[in-house]
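Please check this chain.
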Amino acid sequence: MPDATSEHEETILGAMRGGDLGRAATLTIEAHGGDVRRMLGALLRDDAAAREAYAQFCEDLWRGLPGFRGACSLRGWAMTLARHAALRVVRRERVQWRIARAFALEPAREASGPECARREAILDALRRRLTEEEQALLSLRVDRALAWRDIALELCGGSAARDTAAVRKRFERLKTRLSALARTLEGAHSSS
């Protein structure tokens, strides 16, 4: 006699075979979402980071479900997606911290009151001085923590190693430029 888990997984796989990926994703989240939330909470030990990772997991599940081939259980696959989402959240936080430090600015959550407002003004001034392409590059690498290859695909439409190398160089130049701008703006705001 099959257990409830295998019956539930069979229902999900049946929905997938029938082309109803939305239902399959919903059923998967209903079946395994609680376990995923608990695991993310234990891994990250930060409610905000766990919520962000869970949202990323749900998005990854919706996007990845058409490619699921059944090489492992659906639950195992979902837990792997969740671990990858947690790692991306941790990496993104580390990258944001390093960039903020490189610009001699601490993250906004460390400041309050007038100091926070001053830093926000500096960050806004920095953003306004970036081209759309620079903003996209910064967002893809820092906010979304994409790999260089994925950024090259997004920005250049190519997948060659030279596109990846070119994107990395552009990012390095952007960091240098932003660091200099941040020091200039920091000085201007300190003297006012």
Observations:
- The chain has two domains: 4-93, 106-191.
- Confidence is low (pLDDT under 50) at residues 104-109.
